[in-house]
Automatic annotation (TrEMBL):
Protein name: BTB domain-containing protein
Species of the source: Hermanssonia centrifuga
BTB domain span: 28-86
PROSITE patterns, sorted: BTB (PS50097)
Pfam families (UniProt xref): BTB
Length: 291
């Protein structure tokens, strides 16, 4: 219950006649006033059955000496009120491809205890226009307890460098637990890859290696440098996709690896095709959703 908000809904006599065209039926017994002056005629039955807040409000004794419906002035502007009322009145829902509409709609739906608009917003949150801002979606999903949406958003966030200052504002919307989980998820991918690159089938660059063909001492510093670049790349883009393409074919550090040869017998030190496949496998096996 959010009855503390009742004082924000000022009830007074109807003064204007700027009705929203979809909500202008004279038969409707309640008039809602948006912050920008647009009025919406709605049946009290609809509001009572779709909103806990209105149900509580209409259960209070009503002063109705006048035939004229009273106007209940709301905090929301007409775009948000229209979206909310379309959802609860069974009309076509508006385009919700921007957070600028979705976030205030969710806020209002939660305030007025309207599960219908909340469920519609949740379903729409997983569509491409909203998924294209994964951190904003992640914050929204955590705020409303949408675990599946949060997981989907966490996967999409892997193409972002969450340490970059440009994401600070949206990350500030998160509470500490989901924020720490997100940082850990991104860092884990980097750390797991770093660990895997030091294991078989990759060469051991710790020193004392010898050429498998002629037995001469070989130095794997080119592999060490390539690993360093891969780990750095995972830090700024934990998805790791740019490591395989174009990284391992175009980076100078990769080229140096593929060109490296034993100084004695000139045999190549690294099997390029096999190394590429092994690195790609390692990246593919990293966790793809947040815990
Ligand atoms: Zn050799």
């Amino acid at each position: 219950m959010h009855m503390e908000n009742t004082e924000t809904a000022v009830v007074c006599k109807e003064q204007s006649d700027t009705y929203h065209p979809l909500f202008s039926s004279p038969g409707a017994d309640v008039v809602l006033g948006a912050r920008d002056g647009v009025l919406f005629r709605v049946h009290s039955f609809t509001l009572r059955t779709t909103s806990g807040w209105f149900r509580a409000m209409f259960s209070l004794p009503q002063k109705s000496e006048s035939e004229q419906p009273v106007v209940i002035y709301m905090d929301e502007d007409s775009a948000v009120l229209e979206a909310l009322l379309r959802c609860v009145c069974g009309l076509a829902i508006p385009r919700m491809d921007s957070y600028d509409l979705l976030e205030p709609l969710l806020y209002a739906a939660e305030k007025y205890e309207m599960p219908g608009p909340l469920s519609i917003a949740r379903a729409l949150s997983m569509t491409p226009p909203l998924l294209s801002s994964p951190l904003r979606l992640f914050a929204m999903a955590c705020r409303y307890g949408w675990e599946d949406v949060a997981k989907l958003a966490s996967t999409s966030s892997l193409s972002l460098d969450i340490h970059s200052p440009e994401h600070r504002t949206v990350l500030q919307k998160l509470t500490s637990v989901p924020l720490l989980n997100l940082f850990e998820f991104h860092r884990n991918r980097r750390e797991l890859l770093r660990k895997r690159l030091n294991e078989a089938p990759f060469v051991d660059d710790g020193g004392g290696a010898s050429c498998s063909h002629c037995g001469s001492a070989v130095d794997y510093h080119t592999w060490r440098e390539l690993k360093y670049v891969m780990v750095l790349t995972m830090d700024s883009r934990p998805l790791g996709d740019t490591i395989c393409d174009p990284g391992l074919t175009e980076w100078p550090e990769a080229q140096a690896c593929w060109d490296a040869r034993c100084v004695t017998c000139s045999r190549v030190l690294y099997d390029k095709k096999e190394t590429l496949r092994a690195i790609r496998d390692c990246i593919d096996q990293l966790p793809i959703v947040i815990e």
